[in-house]
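Design job #97: recover the sequence.
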């Protein structure tokens, strides 16, 4: 089908040109000027017809695609999408779920297109990528990329010490399967990642809490747990801790690995966030490579959809971790592993990471401006830890916010022992900065009231 000669009418429109083009496209579809299946002009032709730059049209088509108005067919062009296949545009719903800790969305249609172009480029690998199993722990090509990705944090890391796992959760499950047996004790910070608690419960492990202070895990408290409970491993998140956002100072990292060395306790280092942190301290794996399992998930710094994590394993333990992956997941998805490698090698990953960091800065600034309470945050982190002000309690606050359409997580989800009066806010989950700002404003107003005055229960 030949492309239509459609040209949008922009003379009476205000705002960015790319949004005006997308709006005009939506109107012409609604009034029947453009019908489903009609082929649109190429981006280059439309840019020439309108006398604007190609990038503006590319952003307009990307915006229209996100609204479900058009679709691209590889090698054929761009078409008006059928109503049956169209999806409604993603708009703020009135319900703001700040419970899931996701990287914030950025608005860069050209970068988004480059990410999708990476998917198309995988076609060059043919049926071998689609119809063959790969070895557990990743093929050597992906492990080479993983080693390169980790090298800025772990200089000199060899691909022979790297395993590709099915996300951070899959990596933690595999490592704990290697290090423990049912009934063993594993210790962790007294506030810890809920996913780790879930795995420990599934593997029938006992958890021992290690005390924290305002700098993070306390090494002397770890030593005490080692003496009393004889744990088989320590799980910790020393950089941009979830949920408190604390980062362990360098001197404490040395103290911590010295305790681990003294008592012969291996460490599982969850390093999900350091790729987003400016000038992070050296990882524990750089200080004690013979006993630290370093897990670098791509979910926070690149994309949760990949389900890929790179694991630096102590010398001689790679096959054991790979075999644990074989037993639980068979293999890591070859498609997502290949896409992660493609994004990293072409530089797309670095650009995406930069956009996530820039959007995170905006959202942290919104917190500082709108929540005048005791909030812990850290550069690069898109979650914050709010200490619930009296006379509110965490339970009252969570319940009241849920009733008005805002979802948050109370400290109970993270606590191994007693839970403090605190909540975690995930800043990346709201669709955009405006939705986050609205939610923070509602929250601030609510916290400024007395709990009894904020309820309509009769």
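Job complete. Output follows.
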């Amino acid at each position: 089908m030949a492309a239509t000669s459609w040209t949008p009418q922009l003379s009476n429109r205000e705002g960015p040109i790319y949004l005006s083009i997308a709006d005009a496209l939506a109107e012409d579809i609604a009034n029947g000027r453009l019908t489903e299946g009609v082929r649109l002009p190429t981006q280059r032709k439309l840019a020439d017809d309108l006398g604007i730059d190609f990038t503006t049209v590319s952003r307009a088509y990307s915006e229209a695609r996100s609204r479900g108005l058009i679709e691209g067919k590889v090698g054929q062009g761009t078409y008006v999408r059928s109503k049956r296949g169209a999806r409604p545009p993603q708009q703020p719903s009135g319900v703001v779920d700040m419970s899931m800790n996701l990287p914030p969305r950025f608005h860069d249609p050209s970068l988004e297109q480059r990410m999708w172009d990476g998917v198309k480029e995988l076609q060059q690998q043919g049926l071998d990528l689609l119809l063959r199993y790969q070895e557990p722990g990743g093929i050597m090509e992906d492990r080479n990329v993983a080693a390169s990705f980790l090298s800025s944090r772990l200089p000199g890391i060899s691909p022979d010490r790297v395993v590709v796992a099915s996300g951070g959760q899959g990596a933690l499950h595999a490592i704990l399967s290697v290090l423990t047996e049912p009934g063993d004790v594993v210790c962790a910070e007294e506030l810890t990642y809920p996913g780790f608690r879930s795995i420990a419960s599934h593997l029938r492990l006992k958890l021992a809490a290690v005390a924290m202070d305002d700098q993070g895990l306390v090494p002397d408290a770890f030593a005490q747990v080692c003496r009393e409970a004889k744990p088989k491993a320590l799980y910790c998140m020393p950089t941009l801790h979830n949920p408190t956002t604390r980062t362990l100072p360098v001197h404490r990292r040395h103290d911590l690995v010295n305790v681990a060395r003294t008592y012969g306790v291996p460490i599982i280092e969850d390093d999900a966030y350091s790729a987003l942190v400016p000038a992070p301290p050296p990882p524990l794996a750089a200080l004690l490579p013979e006993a630290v399992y370093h897990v670098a998930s791509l979910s926070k710094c690149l994309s949760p959809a990949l389900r890929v994590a790179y694991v630096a394993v102590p010398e001689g333990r790679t096959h054991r971790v790979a075999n644990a992956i074989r037993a639980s997941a068979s293999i890591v998805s070859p498609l997502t592993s290949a896409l992660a490698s493609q994004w990293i090698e072409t530089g797309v990953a670095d650009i995406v990471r930069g956009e996530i960091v820039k959007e995170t800065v905006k959202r942290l600034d919104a917190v500082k401006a709108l929540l005048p309470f005791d909030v812990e945050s850290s550069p690069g982190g898109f979650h914050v830890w709010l200490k619930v002000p009296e006379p509110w309690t965490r339970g009252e606050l969570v319940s009241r916010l849920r009733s008005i359409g805002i979802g948050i997580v109370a400290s109970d989800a993270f606590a191994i022992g007693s839970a403090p009066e605190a909540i975690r806010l995930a800043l990346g989950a709201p669709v955009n900065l405006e939705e986050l700002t609205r939610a923070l404003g509602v929250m601030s107003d609510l916290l400024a009231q007395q709990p009894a005055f904020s309820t309509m229960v009769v």
